[in-house]
Amino acid sequence: MHQYLFFIGDFPIRAYGVMLALAIISGASVAYFLLKKDGRGWHEHIIDFSITVAIAGLIGARLWDVFFFDWHYYSNHLLEIPYVWQGGMAIQGGVVFGTLAGFWFVKKHNIDAWAFADVFAPALILAQSVGRMANLFNGDAFGHPTGGNFGILYPESTLAYRTYGNQPLWPAEIWEGQIDILIFVALLLFSSFKHAKGQVFVLYAILYSAARFFLEFLRGDYVNLTMGLKSAQMTSLIVMIVGVCVFIYFGYLDKKQQALTEANEAAIESPTKPKKRK
After folding, report:
1. Which region holds residue 139: left if phi is over 0, alpha if psi is between -120 and 50, else beta?
2. Annotated binding site: which residue ranges?
3. CA-based Rg of the chain, rounded to a whole angstrom?
4. SS3 letters across the chain
5. Which of 92, 140, 188, 263 has the fewest CB neighbours in a 10 Å radius?
6. Rounded Cα gap, residues 111 and 260, in angstroms
7. Which GO terms describe its molecular function (predicted)?
8. 226: left (phi over 0), alpha (psi -120 to 50) or beta
């Protein structure tokens, strides 16, 4: 792995930044394809939408990591908060801030928010998968020591090496990227069947949160615990519980709406019988 791909003079071109850019481009490209295939014309907004969500997501990911995971360090190094190249981007914060920015954007352009989110969800998880490649190149979001002679050995210039030295570490970021691909496939498959509006995006939130919850047991880049769980696990657990409830509720609303529509259609198709004259 290489943190620096090459230099332009004294300016380094970092693998981290290149991979993050590729993550955004990959997500936007897949979203454009899916939205254009959807046929409602929303693909015309994808460039502006992607830029808006990407900026908000990057800011959110950084702030989430600073305040939830590493505040004990950054509280004494406030000027280093913008130094994203040092590592430290929490994907959960990126999703939260990106979702809020995306909701604002679609409302501004009179787009059905949940329908748009359903189509966009597979593109989002694919972008997250590519983003984990950035973590691997940068040597952050790493696992804790495996305790054996297997695992990833990071270069001396990485945070992983400064934390654990020359110990083999669990490939937490690699496995998360691979699981994201499986979630991407699952969302495409689910969306091809009849479903209630909003359920694809909610399913994305449930599946990713479940994966993140269990992978956190292997993460070694922070160890702050709340009620025996890491902050990312607490967040994931809340999202899973709320997500399952919302998923079921959306299904209930959809069935209720279908029943109402069928009743109205039946009433229209069945004219009132004329009364018999005595």
Report:
1. left
2. 132
3. 23
4. CCCEEEEECCEEEEHHHHHHHHHHHHHHHHHHHHHHHHCCCHHHHHHHHHHHHHHHHHHHHHHHHHHHHCHHHHCCCHHHCCCHHHCCCCHHHHHHHHHHHHHHHHHHCCCCHHHHHHHHHHHHHHHHHHHHHHHHHHCCCCECECCCCCCECCCCCCHHHHHHCCCCECCHHHHHHHHHHHHHHHHHHHHCCCCCCCHHHHHHHHHHHHHHHHHCCCECCCCCEECCEEHHHHHHHHHHHHHHHHHHHHHHHHHHHHHHHHHHHHHHHCCCCCCCCC
5. 263
6. 24
7. phosphatidylglycerol-prolipoprotein diacylglyceryl transferase activity
8. beta
